[in-house]
Amino acid sequence: MKTVFHSADSRGHADHGWLNSYHSFSFANYHNPERMHFGVLRVLNDDTVTEGKGFGTHPHQNMEIISIPLEGDLEHKDSMGNTTVIKEGDVQVMSAGTGIYHSEYNKNADKGVKFLQIWVLPNKQNVTPRYDQIATGDLKKENELYQIVSPNASDQGVWLHQDAWFYLGDFEAGKSAVHKVHQSNNGTYAFVLEGEVEIAGQKLGKRDGFGVWDTSELEVIAIKDSRILLMEVPMEIG
């Protein structure tokens, strides 16, 4: 088993006034040659957007983009004609493929919106752009990991062009769960949303990240009431 620990306070940080963003991996003006990616997991941004502000229309290409709102409502518009709102409990995926334009704005007039912006390198280039979103309320299971992203359109959650599986878990203190890795060349990156957990002997607090690979499974143990995101991704790029 191999591991890498990224403490919450070691992340890159950018405060643009309307946007307060923490970067687990190199992004924009934050460049760290030792934090370029975890396998095909290229971006993990922890963003807060102020009232009525947001990201104006901008392009993406050949990237799988997952957005997970943590608080508040985010309005999405794109060049495929989609206009929708994603909110806490939703998961959005966008395959940029041959090219797409989109914008994201805080729909709230009285509070900020907090969300995770995640980029995964695809296993297919120049696919037809696509968009999807789901509500995860019916998927949620207490004290268990529940799947929200996979490579298969017929599976639970949304799907993307990569051999990757994402899980959320809400755990009471003292509870635990085992994640069994789907493919031997995959690793798993854990990101703690709330609380405190232990994985492979490493204690993790709020917004700490922990990558584990060269193992067939890992156990998540909740030290306090906790919420965690697990992202299993291929470790080899290309």
Automatic annotation (TrEMBL):
<dbReference type="Pfam" id="PF02678">
    <property type="entry name" value="Pirin"/>
</dbReference>
<protein>
    <recommendedName>
        <fullName>Pirin N-terminal domain-containing protein</fullName>
    </recommendedName>
</protein>
<dbReference type="Pfam" id="PF17954">
    <property type="entry name" value="Pirin_C_2"/>
</dbReference>
<feature type="binding site">
    <location>
        <position position="102"/>
    </location>
    <ligand>
        <name>Fe cation</name>
    </ligand>
</feature>
<dbReference type="InterPro" id="IPR041602">
    <property type="entry name" value="Quercetinase_C"/>
</dbReference>
<dbReference type="InterPro" id="IPR014710">
    <property type="entry name" value="RmlC-like_jellyroll"/>
</dbReference>
<feature type="binding site">
    <location>
        <position position="104"/>
    </location>
    <ligand>
        <name>Fe cation</name>
    </ligand>
</feature>
<dbReference type="InterPro" id="IPR011051">
    <property type="entry name" value="RmlC_Cupin_sf"/>
</dbReference>
<dbReference type="InterPro" id="IPR003829">
    <property type="entry name" value="Pirin_N_dom"/>
</dbReference>
<feature type="binding site">
    <location>
        <position position="58"/>
    </location>
    <ligand>
        <name>Fe cation</name>
    </ligand>
</feature>
<feature type="domain" description="Quercetin 2,3-dioxygenase C-terminal cupin">
    <location>
        <begin position="147"/>
        <end position="233"/>
    </location>
</feature>
<dbReference type="GO" id="GO:0046872">
    <property type="term" value="F:metal ion binding"/>
</dbReference>
<feature type="binding site">
    <location>
        <position position="60"/>
    </location>
    <ligand>
        <name>Fe cation</name>
    </ligand>
</feature>
<comment type="similarity">
    <text>Belongs to the pirin family.</text>
</comment>
<feature type="domain" description="Pirin N-terminal">
    <location>
        <begin position="9"/>
        <end position="120"/>
    </location>
</feature>
<dbReference type="InterPro" id="IPR012093">
    <property type="entry name" value="Pirin"/>
</dbReference>
<keyword id="KW-0408">Iron</keyword>
<keyword id="KW-0479">Metal-binding</keyword>
